[in-house]
Amino acid sequence: MKTKEQPFIMVIFGASGDLTKRKLMPALYSLYKRHRLTENFTILGVARTAYGDVQFRSYIHNQLNKFLDPKEYQAEEVGEFCKHLYYVAMDPSEADDYLLLANRLQELSGSAQPNNILYYLSTPPSLYGVVPVHLKAYKLNSRGSRIIVEKPFGYDLESALKLNNIYASVFDEKQVYRIDHFLGKETAQNILAFRFANGIFEPLWNRNYIDYVEITATENIGIEQRGGYYDESGALRDMVQNHLIQLLALTAMEPPVNFNATEFRNEVIKVYNSLVPLTETDFKEHVIRGQYTASDAKKGYREEQNVKPDSRTDTYIAMRLNIGNWRWAGVPFYIRTGKQLPTKVTEIVVHFKETPHHMFHQVGEGSAQNNTLILRIQPNEGVQLRVAMKVPGSGFEIKQTAMDFTYDKLGGLPPGDAYARLIEDCIASDPTLFTRNDAIEASWRFFDPLISYWKQHPDAPLYGYPAGTWGPKESEAMMNEHGATWTNPCKNLTDSDQYCEL
Ligand code: BG6
Question: Which of 92, 285, 419, 474 has a CA that sits 20 to 30 A from residue 167's CA?
Fold first, then answer.
């Protein structure tokens, strides 16, 4: 029987939490609806809330009604899905409570040694090191089990190393699925297809033709109800150390020999290991930390719930990275992320070098002699190549124009949901799109000196930026050093616009 067809039980720790209702249950339901799950599956919710099975089913049914795309929600089908749900009320930090879990798993699987069990840790990170130890104590870590752990995996290098050691003492590395949902995004995976399934881009994809690269992931919301978590984490740990660095790896990696877990993940780690260590000058000049301040109707970060009134947590980071290898030496990668910016957009902008000689008169904005390629991860997913064309009429005037591909042109299929894709991969025991232990460590190893620098220099600059703007002006100044400016996707965004067109 293929792994996918085997009966499985997914145990969700943190079953009454935010991620479960917003992402995990909708993803599982969408897999169920598309017949991507075996018929014999069970989802066992674990949390402290005192639900029974019936109450849990009705709670999840209501949440699906709220968080599913209305086109996906069909009451009867959701009801059928919910029949697969069970619940055990327990405290995941209490060793003794795992007896309840063990008994429930035995009852649901009909075996004293249940096998195909997937544990999903959707809990506060403080439990990431605790749950596996208790699972082991009750022999719930059989070889057929897998554990999915949300980010952030660790708080710095030391804590990540500790966590990896704990996991290694309970599971084989191949049973550990460190999830970074950006890798589950169709459009992030498309970077690989775009680069390695086309012959025409790869010869240009290097320092000889590329001037610099921007990787942007901005959001037009604040921290919402997550002050407690975010104030301890900040943008560097929340977005840069994982999501942005993954996008960087996809953009900069060498072609893997095969698209399998080992080869792909070997190439990811090579990129991380090639990052040129940041120096003290970089900390001061090539890392810009920001925090949003109040503007119009928008609250400042320090006014948010569960945030310290004198907090120095970063809600914006822009930085310049360099990759020290043959392909990329001398090509800066500028990455940035921030909360409360004008729009939500994630994209990679590759700037090619200028033509060596300007023969034509250029009209319109920007340098018409400089091609740009935009890989839009979200929203309005697609790819755009900006090229120079002759303006019709007499003379030779040149203007930039765009060659566009948008995902909605692919047979009307919207890009799939990242969580659904990754959960399905885990069910099928395919860890390719999950982060390996060495990659987590390499990534923390790179950022750790910066984290220590901030710790040792509590007065290192943290620039304010009014909520709803593109971040601190110092970030623009960093780009200007390279004779460049950030590519802000929408120039004239009005309040009623949410997202920019590609
Ligand atoms: C999460 C971060 O990992 O990614 C959030 O914790 C952020 O702070 C989110 O909002 C962004 O993900 P997406 O898929 O909405 O771009």
Answer: 419
User: Would you give the end-to-end CA distance of the chain in angstroms?
Assistant: 44
CB 238 near ligand 1, within 6 Å: yes
Cα 315 to Cα 239: distance, rounded to the nearest angstrom: 10
Work out whether strand 117-121 and strand 8-13 pair parallel, antiparallel, or are unpaired: parallel
- Would the CB of 219 count as within 6 Å of ligand 1? yes
3-class SS of residue 143: coil
- 171-192 exposure pattern, b = at least 16 Cβ within 10 A, e = fewer: beeebbbbbbbbbbbbbbbbbb
DSSP strand E in 294-443: where? 316-322, 332-338, 345-352, 361-362, 372-378, 382-390, 397-406
Q: What is the 3-state secondary structure (H, E, C) of 268-322?
A: HHHHHHHECCCCHHHHHHCEEEEEEECECCECCHHHCCCCCCCCCCCCEEEEEEE
Q: How far is the CA of 371 from the centre of ligand 1 (A)?
A: 30
**DSSP category for residue 171:** S
Distance between CA atoms of 281 and 449, rounded to whole angstroms?
12
Per-residue pLDDT of the chain (502 residues; tens, 9 = 90+): 555 678 999 999 999 999 999 999 999 999 999 999 999 999 999 999 999 999 999 999 999 999 998 888 999 999 999 999 999 999 999 999 999 999 999 999 987 777 899 999 999 999 999 999 999 999 999 999 999 999 999 999 999 999 999 999 999 999 999 999 999 999 999 999 999 999 999 999 999 999 999 999 999 999 998 999 999 999 999 999 999 999 999 999 999 999 999 999 999 999 999 999 999 999 999 999 999 999 988 999 999 999 999 999 999 999 999 999 999 999 999 999 999 999 999 999 999 999 988 888 877 766 567 899 999 998 888 999 999 999 898 888 888 888 988 887 776 556 678 999 999 999 999 999 999 999 999 999 999 999 999 999 999 999 999 999 999 999 999 999 999 999 987 765 554 555 667 7
Q: Of all protein residues, whose CA lies closest to atom 2 belonging to ligand 1?
A: 238
- Residue 381 Cβ < 6 Å to ligand 1: no
For residue 424 and ligand 1, the question of a CB distance below 6 A is answered with: no
Long-range contacts made by residues 15-19, C-beta under 8 angstroms, separation at least 24? 15/45, 15/46, 15/47, 15/56, 15/87, 15/122, 16/45, 16/47, 16/48, 16/49, 16/51, 16/59, 17/47, 17/122, 17/123, 18/225, 18/226, 19/122, 19/150
- CA 43 to ligand 1 centroid distance, Å: 24
Cα 356 to ligand 1 centroid, rounded to whole Å? 41
What positions carry a catalytic annotation?
Answer: 243
Amino acid at 479: M
Please tell me the distance between residue 231's alpha carbon and the centre of ligand 1 in angstroms: 15
Q: With the C-alpha atoms ordered 54, 55, 60, 66, is the resulting torsion angle positive or negative?
A: positive
Nearest atom in ligand 1 to 243's CA? 3
